[in-house]
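Sanity check

After download, print the first record. It should look like this:
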Amino acid sequence: MKESLSINLVETGAEMETTRHANRRTALICLGAGLIVTSVPIPLLAARTDRGQSWGGFATPPIWRSLEVGTGDTLIVPAKVSGLAIDAVLDSGSGASIISKPLAAKLGMTDLEPRRINGLSGKAPVGLVRNVAVMLGAYAPVLPFAVIADLGAISAAFGRPIDMLLGADVLAGGCVALDFATRRFAFERPASFVPGPEWTALPLGHGAKQELFVLASIAGLDPVPLMLDFGSSSALMLSSAYIEAHSVLVGKTVSTAALGGVEGVQIVKAFVADTVSLGALSSALVPALALDRWTSVSTVGNVGMPLLGQFDIVLDVSQGQLWLRSAPPRARLPMLKDRSGLGLAASTTDLTVVHVASGSPADRAGWAVGEHVVAVDGRPIDDSYTRGLLWQWRYGPAGSRVTLKLADGTTRILKLADYY
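Expected structure tokens:
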């Protein structure tokens, strides 16, 4: 499962403290089952429209722009950094925006200030660059600083280069609307949205390291603070301490996933939460991860894009508000559940097995880390794998069979099944 790219950080002299969350973002990716998930973008032109009255809460009709939902749950938008047009990931879970090393080199960002960041379980070196000009729509801030980091692991999860993560430092400058039905977003002025009665308001909290959080209830328990993480491709993550204190896993089937990032790799538990409630809005059977080493002192987990993508979204950090509205079922992002047990990293020629989930079909069939898949059901792996529909093979119905060809020329048939 591909995990969060996000990092939360506060500059503290020689070091930066970060609260990292497993999924698409300082290079924290989930290397367990479900690593690679993508969807095909619906191309849209920027246009001023309110789609009837459904987005009429804005003072003026918003200017909508194309939104790509990559890997099933990552929000990719057109942006500019230092005048160069790029595709960037929207990541509310990252306190600072993050630029990849290749993009930094292309922009001539060579005079970097050394820093270290805390990940989930350790520290890693990064660079810092000052006064970075960013453009998102008509909004053009100059960021006091941005982080230069290795996003190679994240790019491997996507099967394509990721240039930049736009963090909360950028999102705080406007009011962001996300419309998944037609794959579009708008970035309007702060305080420009007045919700109607169909919207549920959730106050935003700010943690000790400035991470954004909302209160949510897990399986009917008292609401707890969960980081709001657009950049996480895990629907739900919870600290093991919280899970153990509230016996969340009692009676549940549990498997494993591997989370890898700047600080190394850790094995975590994978399970399904019965319900997650955000105010009056509830989602059932939510795929979730349990993390032994959770670094945030202000939250007990995070809520990621697969869960948030069940709703229309308006986020206004300046007003301290998140508004959610139930989206039509066909418009919602899928909360995909892997049924293979293979954690895979993609290249233009093959899929490398980086984790085999315990008790999964792949585990029972004897799959091993390091094996390479070169074709799925007779279709070779190439650079179109994560952009087309072939990636969906791991999320098929239980009982279906998939033929996988390995690099040594042998083939294996894997029968999909629910294993957690």
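If your output differs, re-run the checksum step. Summary of this record's structure: Residues 1-53 have pLDDT under 50 and may be disordered.
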